[in-house]
Amino acid sequence: MSNGEKDKLGEKLHDVEAARENEWARKRDQELLEKMREAAHDNEAARSRSQASIEKLHNQPAAVCPECKQELVPNTDRSVGGMICPQRHGAWFGWDAVAKIMNDFAHSKK
Ligand SMILES: [Zn+2]
After folding, report:
1. 93 in Cβ contact with 101 (< 8 Å)
2. Which DSSP helix (H) or strand (E) runs through 92?
3. Helices and strands, number each (H, E), in the chain
4. Rounded to two decimals, what is the model's pTM?
5. Ligand 1 centroid vs 53 CA: distance in angstroms?
6. 74 CA to middle of ligand 1, Å?
7. Residue 90 C-alpha to ligand 1 middle, in angstroms?
8. What is the full per-residue pLDDT of the chain (110 aa) written as tens digits?
């Protein structure tokens, strides 16, 4: 085998490797794209879910305080949220807010 033929063979092998890498990169890109599409789809589903729950909330009769039967008002502390009795008899929070409050409380205790 002459040196020229050896070089040609080396070139061919190099081409094959490059083709393999391209194939691998293409597959990986496709998988990434697929994942991004799924994520976008999940976001869309989550958006319509939260939109539905907002509409459900709006269609619900106003929540009233079990103590004084007055309509609950939105908590002015936006960082906590929730609905409170205007007479301060009690409050209604979503579970996530309650969990956050308990978590903050646990961490603020010395
Ligand atoms: Zn009340």
Report:
1. yes
2. strand 91-92
3. 2, 3
4. 0.40
5. 26
6. 13
7. 7
8. 566 677 888 888 788 788 888 888 888 888 888 888 888 888 888 888 877 777 776 666 778 999 999 999 999 887 788 899 999 999 998 898 899 889 988 998 66
